[in-house]
Amino acid sequence: MKTAVIQFPGSNCDADALHAARLLLDQDATFVWHTETALPEGTELVFLPGGFSYGDHLRSGAIAARSPIMNAVKAHAEAGGFVLGVCNGFQVLTESGLLPGALSRNRDLHFMCKPVHLRVENNKTAFSKSYDAGQVIEIPIAHGEGNYYADAATIAELEEQGRVVFRYADNPNGSLNDIAGIVNKRGNVLGMMPHPERAVELLLGSEDGKGVFESLKAK
Ligand SMILES: NC(=O)CC[C@H](N)C(=O)O
Question: Which residues form the active site (predicted)?
Fold first, then answer.
């Protein structure tokens, strides 16, 4: 699966994202700088990595969401292409309107960096089909603003449509309904705060994140 990893000033999980993509999806995965206006020909997956784009100035992901490459990312998503946003990438997706809701300061106002347990709530999506329904996986979080919020109608819609893909087993940040990852209505855009790319080899402590990439590969 041909993958483009978008780099913003302040991205810091871009190398890990590229490594995971090359390991599990496609040797030819490439970086794309945020000032570009087009994705490489034939891109199937856009990977928005974690980090502190623009130093989290204004709000996490707010400036990155308005960078030139995002027009191409939106067009890619509208055409049905896959988009995976992890951590700051999830924040960029909510800020750009590709996913609903917002990520606000963690409940305890601390940056948190630790492995957490997630329950796979929906294993029918292109990003989760290699997991079992209800499977509990261990993937690290590393964020200060991962507290998922949306209005009650949006939360109800996400739940009714099975769009909560990953839920925290032990909510670390105050996210409504323990939400750790959601998909858009069409199912081709996933945002999640935990970092699957940091859990793709046992050397890293867990390989439970591999399923996200293996699901995409099997799509
Ligand atoms: N690892 C990350 O992507 C950090 C995300 C974000 N800037 C935060 O701290 O909330």
Answer: 87, 195, 197
